[in-house]
Amino acid sequence: MEGSSCYEGTSCDKSGKKLPVAEYTHAKGCSVTGGYVYRGSKIPGLRGVYIYADYCSGNFWRLTFNGTTAVDASEITSDINPGTALKNISSFGQDGVGELYVFGLNNGTVYHIEAE
Q: What pTM was computed for the model?
């Protein structure tokens, strides 16, 4: 499987598989880099929102849940990575107070996600 699609084939057995709650096409990137649910206090509008990115494109998304279901998967690249300067996003981190960090292999820098 690649997302909810069959990999290298037109059909496959999806029974018993847990399909993704959100996905995007290769036009938006090549590989999901999982993130964190934001638990910090510096960006109140992101509290409780799952932030993730794409390794190749530098695109970022937010995913909101209503308790059991993903209800809003929206791209937020222009808010976090304008011009997608950061590529090869390999990991996320979280400090002791819930603030988020992003790690990029293109220049070895650790970035702190901050409000504008």
A: 0.88
